[in-house]
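Standup notes
- DV: blocked on the single-chain target, sequence here:
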Amino acid sequence: MTHAIAVHGGAGTPAPAELTPENARAYRAGLECALRTGFEILSHGGSSLDAVVAAVRVLEDDPLFNAGRGAVLAADGTHELDAAVMDGRDLRAGAVTGLRHVRNPVELARLVMECSPHVMLAGPGAEAFAVEQGLAPVPNSYFTTERRRLELERCLRGEPGSREDSLMGTVGAVAVDAQGNLAAATSTGGMTGKRWGRVGDSPIIGAGTYAANDCCAVSATGHGEYFIRATVAHEIASLVRYRGLDIVAAAEEAVMRQLAKLGGSGGVIVVGRDGRIAMPFNSPGMLRGAMDSNGLLKTGILKD
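- DV (later): unblocked, structure below
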């Protein structure tokens, strides 16, 4: 059976300064590193869940992306991080939101799924659970980069497009393993200048993250409020499950028509039971990549 993985590193309107040849190479290198990390696990018979968590952890540690180190700043000058994982075998899921001191939120989301009776933990309760599980806290300043500090300054000054000019979203991964099991993981710092306490779609199961072995695995990126309202990830799964659409048609319907009709921008990565991958987006750009056991390896930034 084909095993496959796809990753994303955000969707939005890239500013010209963001897409210098040097920056484009760096983005593609980061995406490829995440792909190869997850694919290595799949190639040795590892689970899709292990693969997506490992791939997202790579992107959380890369300061180019808006998750973990390099995450955007809220209006009060702090970082608040969200993440979720879902295992398609049994619909188990774990999510965390409002984290300020957890280096790799995707790891804590998995611990919520595997080591607690809950699906989502928030804020101080999630932080306390992280310490109980042996995750050493980091200072909030660990996540800060000069680039994100300057982005917040521009946003607070009200500069036009200051929220949208960067490839601002979320990172995520979806995979199918050699046993046919599907999994998804998503992690984000949210939106530049967001109100503290704001929660986007990434940690909400069915909005920004979803996986089920009978249909597909989905991770979303973009303007989270719209993804929540349209329950995009679950909508794609339902179009596959109940209308019999293939994942390409289902993803196109949800992102290019339903989401766009609401005024929402962004995209998704989707992998099906057969290893087929879809990566549609209605924004000018989406950092994305895919790799499978048939020899596929590709990354992209703007529309092809």
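- Follow-up: The longest helix spans residues 21-43.
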